[in-house]
Amino acid sequence: MANSKRDLFVKRRLRVRNKLRKSNSGKLRLSVHRSNKNISAQLIDDVLGKTLVAASSLEKDLGVEGKNNVEAAAKIGAAIAERAKKAGIEECYFDRGGFLFHGKVKALADAAREGGLKF
Description:
By secondary structure, the chain is of the alpha+beta class. The chain has one domain: Nucleotidyltransferase, domain 5 (2-Layer Sandwich), CATH 3.30.420. Helix content is 39%, strand content 21%. The chain has a 4-stranded mixed β-sheet with strand order 3-2-1-4. Helix 2 (70-86) runs parallel beside helix 3 (104-114). Keywords: Ribonucleoprotein, Ribosomal protein, RNA-binding, rRNA-binding. Belongs to the universal ribosomal protein uL18 family.
């Protein structure tokens, strides 16, 4: 029986997350979600089960409202890094979910690294 695209995406997401959890226990997780219209990122403490910092293309103050392109992803990455610095967070691990590490996801990660996050 053939797997649907969604099933393959979920399998890939869980595979990535489980590998990261084994090697990065105790660190915060920078989780990225990309939809057809928006992109968002959040720093999550899995021990507490809480989101500490978040940024999204839905926010009006970032100037990328409703955009889902590489430039918008870079602005979101810079915003998440800036907010993490304000919260005293310097280190995390990057959870790309089931998305491939290129294009928008890579632009977000590179901008977050340039902003001072280490992963």
